[in-house]
Amino acid sequence: MTYEGEPGARFDRAYYVERHLPLVMHRWSRYGLTGVAAFFPAVEQAGTLAICECQFRDEASVDAAFASPEVSEVMADLPCFTEIAPRRVRVLPL
Fold first, then answer.
1. Domain with 38 in it: what CATH number?
2. How many C-beta atoms lie closer than 10 Å to residue 77's C-beta?
3. 4, 52 in Cβ contact below 8 A?
4. Does the first or last residue of the chain, that is N or C, have fewer Cβ atoms within 10 Å of its Cβ?
5. For 10-23, b where at least 16 C-beta lie within 10 A, e where not — what string?
6. Structurally, how many domains does the chain consist of?
7. 35 domain-assigned
8. CA 29 to CA 63: how far, in whole Å?
């Protein structure tokens, strides 16, 4: 997931790392999520405010997690740290 915005847009990094990512891991590990990591730009500027790397066991695991009943709970947590809509990006090994 990526979060794009302007400097000063609300994005609570502490909540994201300490509360949201553990929620994601807890809810989606049963579907094959094996790890999560957050990355933030060193300098605040327009563009990417945050990147979440979700590592899944395989392609089927990604599809299962995003089709699961738990996706609504994960997405309902977004207003706790931002108003920015996430953009899902899939990266595949070359």
1. 3.30.70.100
2. 15
3. no
4. C
5. ebeeeebbeebbeb
6. 1
7. yes
8. 13
Q: Does some domain include residue 17?
A: yes
- Asked if residue 25 is part of any domain, the answer here is yes
Residue 88, domain member (yes or no): no
∠ CA 23-89-15, nearest 5°, is 30
Q: Which residue has the tokens 């999560």?
A: 36
pLDDT in tens, 24-48: 999 999 999 999 999 999 988 899 9
Q: What is the pTM of this model?
A: 0.92
Q: Are 56 and 62 in contact (CB under 8 A)?
A: yes
Q: Cβ contacts of residue 39 below 8 Å, gap of 6+?
A: 50, 51, 52, 53
Judged by DSSP in three states, 86 sits in coil
Residue 18, CB-side half-sphere exposure with 13 Å CA sphere: 6
Give the three-class secondary structure for 56: strand
In this structure, is the dihedral angle defined by the CA atoms of residues 44, 87, 27 and 74, taken in order, positive or negative?
A: positive
